[in-house]
Structures are given as structure tokens and as C-alpha cells.
Design brief:
alpha+beta; three-stranded antiparallel β-sheet; elongated
Length: 294
Amino acid sequence: IKLAYASTPIDAVTLLTLRMIYSAPLFVLMAWWSTRAPEAKPLTRRDWLSIAWLGFIGYYLSSLVDFMGLQYVTAALERLMLYLYPTIVVVLSAIFFRQRITGRIVVALALSYAGILLVFARDLKFAGDPSSLWLGAALVFASSFLYACYLVGVGPVIARIGSMRFIALAMLTSALFIFIHFLATRPVATLLVPARIHLLALTMAVFSTVLPTYLIAEAIKRMEILPEEVALRFGYPPNQRVVNFILKDHFSSKTTSAEYGASTHGGTADGELEASMLKIDGPRRLNVTGKIND
């Protein structure tokens, strides 16, 4: 993004529009592919509203204010402030989901924000226009907050409709908001920028948009932090958490084993037949085992 700003005079909305122009075809392909899955179900009105809202705050609004903030702050400060979003997720989870904040987490939060303040104070000392630095920092922090809100709300939607399908539809919704914003405020000729900018936009589309959004959603889908009592069940202290990694949403297996034994000189013979079936279908699990001894 900073390379694009340094290469030619270009505003945040135009650069974001170019990024989504190159991203949109890939998300269309992802949306089409996800509908071919046998478990894909028709989307409800609630699903569409959730997709539209999360696409609006998570990528349109969050990306827009981040691009705007980068016009006023360095890339280093922007990255540091943007990656405060996990700390905001912790606070929002405590407020809305009653998740406990331990003393260790409080220390980690304090150190995170203390480090940001030190870096910001240094940049402020050497800034030619302090008001611009404050504005840029506020915009980047707003981007971090919006993205944290997106992450807090995205889990249940992904569980209902799947990670690939959600990401594709949410990003296409976000692209629609961006295109409307661009067409309402700028002429189409604004997109006629040097080839270097198009190359940078394509790079951002693939490596900073499509791949990260899909991988984050897939990670949210496949990781489950279990309640504290589960740690106690396995012999760990209650302040530790057990993380469940979900490798397959849909899995089935059938196994059969047989044993037979007999003495070589007289005596008796014995045999055993065992069969089992395991089926995992999303949150549902079926495990049946049968054994016959003779």
C-alpha cells in the first residue's frame, strides 16, 4: 500500500477499488465452488443479513479506514496498531460472552498498549505534522476495532454455512460496497493508473486479501477452545484451556476384526468378532461398537 502511495498520486478509495477488482473474480470462483459441496444448504434471510453486515464492517469499512490511515502514518506504526485486534477481541469477548480475563491476560494487554504508546511517542516526536499523525493513528485503530468486531461475530456464521462459502460471499458483499462508494464519488477514468499500480493491486488482491481471509476463516472453523472444566477433566489447572483441532467436518469409518484361538492337543477353541462404526457429521457424532465372544 505504501509503495502504491509513493509511486503515484492515488487516493485510498481508488486503490481499494483496484484491489477488489482483482479479488472479486477469485471470490466468485470460491462462491461457485462452495455451492457444489453436498452439505451446502440454502441460505436463510438471517444468513444473508449476517453476511452483509460482517462484509460491511469487516472488509469494506475496516479496509477503507486502514487505507486512509496509511496516508498519514508509517507502515511500521500501522502494522503495530492494526495487530492490536486480538487484544480488542479479548475485551469484546469478556463483555459480550462473559469470558474471564485472567491476571496474565491483563499484563499482556498492558504490555501491548505500552509498547504501542512508546512507538507512537517516538513517531510523534519526529512528525512534521502531529495532527496528521493523530488522525492516521485514529483511523488505523478504528480499522483494528472494526476487524475485531468482525472476528467476534464471524464464528457462528461460519459454523452454519462453511468457511469458504462465507468468505466468498462476505468479500463479494464488501466489494459491492466499495464499487458503489467509488462510482458515487469518482469518475471511472480514475482507474487509469500506471501498470505498476495495477501490479501492486493484483499482488495485494492475492496475498493480502484472498489468501489471508480464507486461511483465517478456515482456522476459526477448525479450532475450538473448550471450557475450563474440560482442562480439569484431563488433569490440568483450571486456568489452562484445551484446544480442539477439527481436521474433518464429515468423516465415517467402519472396522471389523476377528480372532480365533485353539489348543494344539485337545482343549477348547475360542473366537471373538468385533465391529465398530464411527460417523462425524458437523457437531453430531455417532459411535457404535459390537462384540461377540464364543
